Amino acid sequence: MESQKPKKVVARGLIGVIADDSEISTVGIGKGLNYRGYNIEDLAHGCIFEEVLYLLLFKELPTRDQLKDFQEKIAENRYIPAKLAEVIELVPKDSHPMDLMRTVASFLGTIEPETEENDQFTISIRLSAIFGPCLFYWYHFHKSGKRIEVDTHKSDTIAKNIVRLLKNDGKEPDELLVKTMEVSLILYAEHDFNASAYNARVTASTLSDFYSGITSAIGTLRGPLHGGANEAAIRFIKQFKTKEEAEAKLYEMYKEKKLVMGFGHRIYKNGDPRSDIIKGYSKKLTETEHGRPDLFEISERIENIMMSEKKMHPNLDFYSASAYYQLGLPVDFFTPIFVVSRTSGWAAHIIEQRSKNKLIRPASNYIGPEPKEFTVLDMRSKI
Length: 383
Ligand SMILES: CC(=O)SCCNC(=O)CCNC(=O)[C@H](O)C(C)(C)COP(=O)(O)OP(=O)(O)OC[C@H]1O[C@@H](n2cnc3c(N)ncnc32)[C@H](O)[C@@H]1OP(=O)(O)O
Ligand SMILES: O=C([O-])CC(=O)C(=O)O
Description:
Low-confidence stretches: none
Number of strands: 3
Distance between the termini: 35 Å
Number of helices: 16
Pathway: Carbohydrate metabolism; tricarboxylic acid cycle; isocitrate from oxaloacetate: step 1/2
Number of domains: 2
CATH architecture of the largest domain: Orthogonal Bundle
Helix content: 55-70%
GO cellular component, one term: mitochondrial matrix
Bound molecules: acetyl coenzyme *A, oxaloacetate ion
Structural class: mainly alpha
CATH superfamily of the largest domain: Citrate Synthase, domain 1
Strand content: under 5%
Order of helices and strands: EEEHHHHHHHHHHHHHHHH
Protein name: Citrate synthase
Keywords: Transferase, Tricarboxylic acid cycle
CATH class of the largest domain: Mainly Alpha
CATH topology of the largest domain: Citrate Synthase, domain 1
């Protein structure tokens, strides 16, 4: 009698699989998103990014004194050691800056490896502080041959420092640009078991080192189905001169069943609560010197058509795209800025995974050939 194989339930893409407990964030309860119990709107409107970073690492919002000490620590951690500067300069000008981010995480792990003293909290702060400076050091080195100083303004927040280093014009950064960056960093900080955070946890679950977890996560974030969608979205939006052109292209894409980047979400099926917040800043930026009301209007037309035709909402990446563009960020720097922010969430996930570790290793439903007889090399036919 033929033996019946038990039928396995396959969860492709791990859709709906609850893979572990977590106390870091709640995603998709109603339209909600909370970091450690605090609603994203309250955090985005009432905090600087450092408070959120502190919350994700230490589970509580900081007091004023704790925040002051924390900000001082971050400022101290912006410096780029000479060996790292050498490596940054070697990353070719035409590389994608996500290559640079991955390289920085990996190389820093060789000169400042994880030890009992250089522990997971110390490394989290170091990476959150240094990623922005490294990115803009590389940018200016290749753009104009300048080796910029990255840690001159000790009282800068991470957001202000990013805008300062981007512009590098000796002027005080514009307040609206800084506020937009601040809010964006808060919105991008954490999102439960998203692909990159989960990958960081998979790496941590083998008892690997902290830098390896972050490096794995950077590689995962880069793809256009995840963090790379902000770059893909602006490339899509920017090609249109008019709203009508965008509309016609959308209908063509529907016929070809093509994805519209910056729309849809694995968890949020009724809208991403972060989208309207960043959309508000994108709109405010249209009124600034380098504002692009045309891009904003085209984006809104795309949003409206996606809603009326596909019942599909924008995710955080869609309006982040026009916001970042109006901030003057080079297009391929969009996802690296996401890295600067999401390092906080990845760190929280690695720390949590380690605190109650279980090796992450799912099983597959094998659908390959039945067992076959082995043939030695010389006896195999050529077909
Ligand atoms: C910060 C972030 O990472 S947010 C996500 C950023 N990524 C993007 O914006 C990329 C575009 N979006 C997508 O590819 C998807 O919506 C994802 C990857 C985000 C979510 O994917 P899933 O949860 O697997 O959604 P799923 O694929 O089941 O979508 C259901 C249907 O909607 C379609 N669909 C989903 N997203 C889109 C989109 N952006 N444009 C057009 N159609 C879409 C799918 O093709 C599918 O159609 P089908 O039923 O005919 O096959
Ligand atoms: O949760 C996800 O799948 C993707 C996302 O929005 C994020 O990582 O911010």
